[in-house]
UniProtKB/TrEMBL annotation:
InterPro entries named among the record's database cross-references: 4Fe4S_Fe-S-bd (IPR017896), 4Fe4S_Fe_S_CS (IPR017900), 7Fe_ferredoxin (IPR000813), Fd_C (IPR022569), FdxA (IPR054829), RnfB_subfamily (IPR050294)
Cofactor: [3Fe-4S] cluster; [4Fe-4S] cluster
Domain 4Fe-4S ferredoxin-type, chain residue ranges per copy: 1-30, 31-60
Matches recorded under PANTHER family: FERREDOXIN (PTHR42859:SF2), OXIDOREDUCTASE (PTHR42859)
Name of protein: Ferredoxin
SUPFAM superfamilies noted in UniProt: 4Fe-4S ferredoxins
Keywords: 3Fe-4S, 4Fe-4S, Electron transport, Iron, Iron-sulfur, Metal-binding, Repeat, Transport
An example Gene Ontology molecular-function term: 3 iron, 4 sulfur cluster binding
Keyword Transport carried by entry: yes
Length: 113
């Protein structure tokens, strides 16, 4: 089992989760975070920290696409371990439907740089 970041993170990108991760397995895209499935130790401390409820265990049904997306982009994006401000539009984007189709960016974020 691993944890995955799902669509509600897109254009919110709260980073409360990265601060509590004991193995630093979060990676940052331009408007989204992912968890590296090979680095996640399944501790679950990140899940309750996400204000948008975007982190789920991969045992939940219907998360195959998100597991693949997290696995694809984690090696491409920079590691992030430091909490930063959420995106300016985070509150208004929380809960918006169809965020992946409308807003997902494959571009990397800043990481800890």
């Amino acid at each position: 089992m691993t944890y995955v970041v799902t669509d509600n993170c897109i254009r919110c990108k709260y980073t409360d989760c990265v601060e509590v991760c004991p193995v630093d397995c979060f990676y940052e895209g331009e408007n989204f975070l992912v968890i590296h499935p090979d680095e996640c130790i399944d501790c679950g401390v990140c899940e309750p920290e996400c204000p948008a409820g975007a982190i789920k265990p991969d045992t939940e049904p219907g998360l195959d696409m998100w597991l693949k997306l997290n696995a694809e982009f984690a090696p491409q994006w920079p590691n992030i371990t430091i909490k930063r401000e959420a995106l300016p539009e985070a509150k208004e984007m929380d809960g918006v439907d169809g965020k992946y189709e409308k807003f997902f960016s494959p571009n990397p974020g800043e990481g800890d740089a």
